[in-house]
Design brief:
Blueprint (H helix, E strand, L loop, with lengths): L16 E5 L3 H12 L3 E5 L3 H9 L5 E2 L7 E4 L3 H14 L6 E4 L5 H6 L5 E2 L1 E3 L20 E4 L7 H13 L3 E4 L2 H30 L11 H7 L6 H10 L1 H23 L3 H16 L11 E9 L4 H11 L6 E6 L5 E9 H13 L5 E3 L3
Parallel strand pairs: 1-2, 1-4, 2-3, 4-5, 5-6, 8-9
Antiparallel strand pairs: 7-8, 10-12, 10-13, 11-12
Length: 368
């Protein structure tokens, strides 16, 4: 299969060369973030005009396929994801090239692609805007970006992804594909369906009572904001993650039935308990830290064995510990290295305890 060559390239010799496949809102934002981080970025899209528009907007350095790129991001709809990931792996000529993706569902693509260079991923970010005209290089700053390495994923590929995405300002979290899909059903997929259902309810009622939507205040608008997202992407998401979504919808239906009963029986104490729990959980949602004095370096000796980085970063996710940066210091002798992770001081102790419980021997050091 012939591969098209990049056009308008002004820095083809750059040592940091990236390829983005799919130049819509997310792909365009990834491309812009990569350029902001110093990468020379080539992009292609099934609709050539979309890639050309990304070039015009400054998201790309070139249009086409850069087979020598060392970092590839596939940002296409779920239905085309597996095919495009395989195509990227086949076209990447660089020996150490890493391929990741931005798909909202991870199990299917993770089970379909077994290559050490592939690191499945999902940025928890977006916008109501559509297409590359809404692209924003800062879209991922402060946003969670989940990586779901498989048994085949190489440690080098995982570490590369973690460092590139951390440079965007992303909160990089590592977990299994199956766990990811179960969790995003709760925090992303079902909330979208709930917002859509509430919006449809209001729209239907407005047919009989025209002023209804004019009364929609800030709370209603905030709660239903995500219903403005493009419907097309949700058809594939709901198909790919059907079982997890249906399970969470069942739980939500049970919760709503309980709230209905509390309201119907005028159970003030029961209603207060529900609202208090919700308020406490909402105010305790995690926030990011940015000041260096709040960070601590955790150094973990690790054997030179595949899967160690994935195991430790998944342990961090289990402990609700954010890893702000990561690197490996290799020993010139022997078969051990040191995994260096930067975490919040307030989170370090529980992480250290978890590491010790798994047989690791971590130490800490202040940031220089």
């Amino acid at each position: 299969m012939a591969v098209d060559s990049p056009s308008n390239s002004h820095d083809a010799s750059s040592p940091k060369r990236a390829q983005v496949v799919g130049t819509g809102l997310i792909g365009g934002s990834v491309a812009a973030a990569l350029r902001k981080s110093g990468w020379h970025v080539t992009g292609r899209d099934e609709v050539v005009a979309h890639a050309q528009r990304a070039l015009e907007l400054g998201c790309l350095d070139a249009v086409g396929t850069d087979t020598e790129a060392s970092f590839w991001v596939v940002a296409v709809p779920t239905a085309r994801l597996t095919a495009e990931v395989k195509r990227a792996l086949a076209h990447s000529a660089a020996a150490a090239a890493v391929v990741t993706d931005t798909g909202s569902v991870k199990t299917a693509v993770s089970e379909s692609v077994s290559d050490p260079r592939f690191v499945p991923g999902h940025p928890m970010a977006g916008s109501e805007q559509e297409g590359v005209d809404g692209a924003n290089p800062d879209m991922f700053a402060g946003a969670v970006w989940t990586l779901t390495p498989t048994d085949a994923t190489d440690d080098h590929a995982l570490r590369t992804c973690q460092r590139v995405l951390a440079a965007f300002g992303s909160d990089v979290v590592t977990m299994t594909p199956q766990r990811h899909d179960a969790l995003v059903a709760v925090v992303s997929h079902v909330p979208h369906l709930t917002a859509a259902s509430l919006m449809c309810l209001a729209d239907d009622r407005a047919l009989d009572d025209a002023p209804l939507l004019r009364l929609a205040a800030g709370g209603f608008r905030d709660m239903t904001r995500i219903a403005a997202g493009h419907p097309g992407i949700w058809l594939d998401i709901c198909g790919e993650n059907r079982d997890a979504i249906v399970s969470v919808l069942d739980e939500l239906a049970e919760r709503l039935a309980q709230v209905r009963d509390v309201v119907a029986t005028a159970d003030r104490d029961g209603l207060r308990d529900v609202l208090t729990q919700a308020r406490r959980a909402r105010t305790n949602l995690p926030s990011r830290y940015v000041r260096p004095q709040e960070l601590l370096e955790v150094r973990v000796p690790i054997p030179d064995r595949k899967g160690q980085i994935a195991a430790i970063t998944m342990l961090a996710a289990d402990c609700d510990v954010n890893v702000a940066d990561i690197e490996v210091a290799h020993s010139p002798e022997g078969s051990e290295g040191v995994l260096v992770l930067v975490v919040a001081r307030t989170e370090a102790q529980r992480f250290l305890a978890a590491l010790a419980g798994q047989g690791y021997h971590p130490t800490t050091r202040d940031l220089a």
